[in-house]
Design brief:
single chain, alpha+beta, conserved putative lor/sdh protein from methanococcus maripaludis s2 fold, Elongation Factor Tu (Ef-tu), domain 3, 5 helices, 21 strands, disordered C terminus
Length: 416
């Protein structure tokens, strides 16, 4: 009986121990460490607010000192190219001056023509005088004495010859006087011609100042506001008469002094139009070297308002409507790993991955950068690692909390 009793006790103890081992195993399995995963990904882009605007803009204001507008060559909404005529000024004061000059010019030309006619008349008289001189000279050279009255023949012949010679001298003197008159008239005519030429040059100069034509300096679409040329508005100069907006669109953004060095010319960015969600890419084409006017001359103070902002321009790959607000995302280079996910042992760096519910230790190559590790090699984008190394060791069975998929979806919606 005693032996049977002992056997029963031993069996009971054995059964208890077996149950204890099973319960302990089950309990141990239920208490597996739970870990959260982190997905290796690119750095989140830096976001800037921007607005679509014309790449170029030309504003032309009415200038009353140039006169009134005589003619428009364009209408609202027209497309123009560089050098195309827009409108013409006409100055009434200069116009009256030009009319006076034209009247003076016409009188001078009339007097000049009369002088030419008078000179030609005198020249004609000189020709007549030349003909008379030739005739007298011929008559003297071929003079034949008279034979009618022999008693007075010598005296008569002498008197006739003297008369001919006197007439010849008078003709020559008359010709000299006429030649002197012509010389004086030609001199006066030449001076009159010079005066006419000067007057003509002055008229041409005044004509140019009487009218002036405004031309387009850029290509684009015309916004015409004829009301701005009315006296009630043009005195203040508050409204442009013509605004030419180029059809090339850029997106203007602002960057603070803290991110200024990250804006690099020719760097690609991602764009999202806020009202439609349409996405595209673009290229940074300009970065101002001077801060916005609101920051110019400001006295530096240790306040948020003292931060300087700079304008930069992005050329979008596709068209964006003028004035639309745009979100600019600047991709950041490099892949960063949280420091709490990296284990450092003997100058080597490790992270933990989960394979078949067990921790696997993986060596990576990183460098420290401002509180995080910058990945050099050892991991690829999309790989998942345990987010916190505390209490981990290789081979440990773990439960997984994987929030990376929902986070990635959120990131995708935020990124372009």
């Amino acid at each position: 009986m005693k032996k049977n009793k002992n056997k029963i006790i031993i069996s009971a103890i054995s059964i208890f121990l077996i149950f204890a081992i099973i319960i302990g195993f089950i309990s141990t399995k239920k208490k597996k460490m739970t870990v959260e995963l982190y997905t290796v990904k690119e750095q989140d882009p830096i976001s800037f607010s921007g607005v679509a605007k014309a790449a170029k803009n030309q504003e032309i204001y009415y200038d009353s000192t140039k006169g009134s507008i005589k003619e428009y060559y364009v209408k609202d909404g027209d497309s123009v190219i560089v050098g195309q005529k827009l409108f013409m000024y006409e100055n009434e004061t200069v116009k009256e001056q030009l009319n006076k000059l034209n009247r003076s010019y016409n009188n001078a030309v009339s007097n000049y023509n009369d002088s030419i006619d008078e000179t030609n008349k005198v020249k004609s008289q000189i020709k007549d005088m030349d003909r008379k001189i030739r005739e007298l000279s011929y008559e003297i050279e071929n003079y034949k004495p008279l034979s009618i009255n022999p008693e007075n023949i010598a005296d008569a012949n002498l008197e006739n010859l003297n008369n001919l010679q006197m007439a010849l001298e008078q003709a020559k003197a008359g010709k000299n006087e006429l030649e002197m008159t012509v010389s004086q008239m030609q001199k006066a005519t030449k001076e009159a011609k010079n005066g006419i030429d000067e007057m003509s040059a002055e008229i041409n100069s005044v004509k140019k100042s009487m009218t002036s034509i405004e031309k387009a300096e850029i290509s684009g679409k015309i916004k015409l506001n004829k009301e701005a040329a009315k006296p009630s508005l043009n005195m203040s100069g508050s409204e442009a008469l013509i605004n030419i907006i180029s059809e090339d669109i850029v997106v203007e953004g602002q960057v603070s002094e803290y991110d200024y060095e990250k804006i690099v010319l020719d760097k690609r960015v991602r764009l999202e139009i806020n009202n439609s969600g349409e996405k595209m890419e673009g290229t940074i084409i300009k970065l101002d070297s001077m801060p916005n006017s609101s920051n110019l001359g400001a006295i530096p103070q240790q306040t948020e308002s003292s931060v300087s902002n700079y304008n930069f321009l992005v050329k979008p790959d596709d068209y964006i409507h003028y004035g639309f607000s745009v979100d600019i995302k600047l991709p950041q280079e490099g892949i960063y790993i949280p420091m709490e996910a990296v284990e450092k042992l003997d100058d080597k760096f490790y992270v933990y991955e989960v394979e078949d519910d067990k921790l696997v230790k993986k060596e990576i190559n990183v460098e420290e950068d401002d509180g995080v590790y910058k990945l050099i090699s050892g991991l690829e984008i999309g790989e998942k690692i345990v987010s916190n190394k505390e209490g981990l060791k290789e081979g440990l069975e773990v439960n997984i909390i994987d929030n990376t998929e929902s986070k990635d979806e959120t990131t995708k919606k935020e990124d372009i």
